[in-house]
Amino acid sequence: MTAPRRIALLLDRSLNFVRGVIRGVRTYAAEKPNWVLRDGPPRLSLIRHVRDWKPHGIIAGLVVPRVARELIRMEIPLVDTAFTLPDLGVPAVDVDHAAVGRMAAEYFLERKFRHFGFFGSERAVYSRMREAAFKQRVAEAGFSASSCHIEYLADLTGAALWKKAAQKTRRWLRRLPKPAAILCSEDAPARYLADVCAQMGLRVPEDVALLGAGNDDLECTLTRPAISSVAVPSQRVGFEAAALLDRLMAGEPWPSGPLLLPPLHVITRHSTDILAIEDETVQAALQYIRLHVREPMSVGQIACDIAVSRRLLERRFRKLLGRSVLEEINRVRVERAKELLTETNLPITAVATESGFPSVRRLDAVFAKLTGLSPTSFRRRSRPERT
């Protein structure tokens, strides 16, 4: 039998993203019978025990600088999945944070917002990357975004968040032109911001539309309204981190840069379920499409049901949204299909039915046109699997 390989997973299991990472690691390890996995939180008090265990490799969420320094000193293969601390010089696997920022900006621009904000950490590398990409894409569209930074990382006390950060956040929200679209660096800050808005009498999403990142079910639904979020491939991150660690333990050289995996899609909940336009006809049509996404529908049927002419409806859609009614129907159906492909194990035939497509062939054609991928390829990109 091959000699055991001891793998330490120093990851904070209280986070939904991290639990997905651990599942991905275990998926990879399922075909490595000699791997012995042991996990614990990335705390300084645990480092001595990790060192005594003599692991052959470590996968860690490096958030606390002293923990990172101690693990690097051990001089064994180490992979970071937090992408939080700058200039570590450690191989990393994580989400493409710039792509998260761009996806969020595109999402808000599609909803015709003109005022934008970013709310998150100034210290965390991943937060800065999301912020920079968000602002760049907004600027390309001719707008600007205001930022408010708070710190919520593991090595910081909560006192600042409860006192100074609250005052700073309220001042920022008061100054922000309304309606405003805000990207939060994660779901937890988005929930915090939703609570602050409620205390200030700001309506979400009518005054402030909030978008988080990570799609943590608990964080997104713990407040009202429920928080929309950018879904990310956490299990795939874990799988690829384990694969990279395996190569490093085999003596292969370090990769030239981090492996960053693209985000999946935006899951819309009530916190962003609005368009920053005042046209009642277009709003009624959009609501109709969302409510009847699973059902057969035509442009003529929608116009009839909201009591306007088809020509008027098409003209207003083109003017305000820059796309046709049919294009909007297809866009909403593809977004629904994305959610089903990543969040469920439904077969492709059921995905087509549940997202309103009359056949798998039609789903394939429209999905590929809008995403550049087949539904099967899109699902495979989000799920860990061995090659």
Q: What share of the residues lie within helices?
A: 40-55%
How many DSSP-defined strands? 12
The CATH architecture of the largest domain:
3-Layer(aba) Sandwich
Total number of helices: 17
What is the C-level CATH assignment of the largest domain? Alpha Beta
In one word, what is the shape? globular
The topology string of helices and strands comes to: EHEHEHEEHEHEHHEHEHEHEEHHHHHHH
Cα separation of the termini: 24 Å
Major sheet description = 6 strands, mixed
If you compute it from the alpha carbons, what radius of gyration comes out, rounded to the nearest whole angstrom?
A: 23 Å
Order of strands, widest sheet: 7-6-8-9-10-12
How many domains, as an integer?
3
Mean pLDDT over all positions:
90
- Measured by DSSP, the beta-strand proportion falls in 5-15%
Structural class label: alpha/beta
Q: In the CATH hierarchy, what is the superfamily of the largest domain?
A: Response regulator
Uncertain segments of ≥5 residues (pLDDT<50)?
A: none
**CATH domain topology of the largest domain:** Rossmann fold
Can you put this structure into words, describing what you see?
The chain is α/β, with parallel strands linked by helices and 387 residues long. The chain has 3 domains: 5-95 and 234-262, Rossmann fold (3-Layer(aba) Sandwich), CATH 3.40.50; 97-233 and 266-272, Response regulator (Rossmann fold); 280-382, Homeodomain-like (Arc Repressor Mutant, subunit A, Orthogonal Bundle), CATH 1.10.10. 49% of the residues lie in helices and 14% in strands. The protein contains 17 helices and 12 strands. The protein has helices spanning 16-29, 47-53, 65-73, 97-110, 125-140, 159-162, 164-175, 187-200, 217-221, 234-249, 280-291, 299-305, 310-321, 325-343, 348-354, 360-371, 375-382, and strands at residues 5-10, 35-40, 57-60, 78-80, 93-95, 116-120, 145-149, 180-184, 208-213, 228-231, 259-261, 265-267. The strands form 3 sheets. Strands 7-6-8-9-10-12 form a 6-stranded mixed sheet, with helices on both faces. The protein has a 4-stranded parallel sheet with strand order 2-1-3-4, covered by helices on one side. Strand 1, helix 1 (16-29) and strand 2 (35-40) form a beta-alpha-beta unit. Helix 1 packs across helix 10 and helix 7 packs across helix 8. The longest helix has 19 residues, at 325-343. The model has no long low-confidence stretch (mean pLDDT 90).
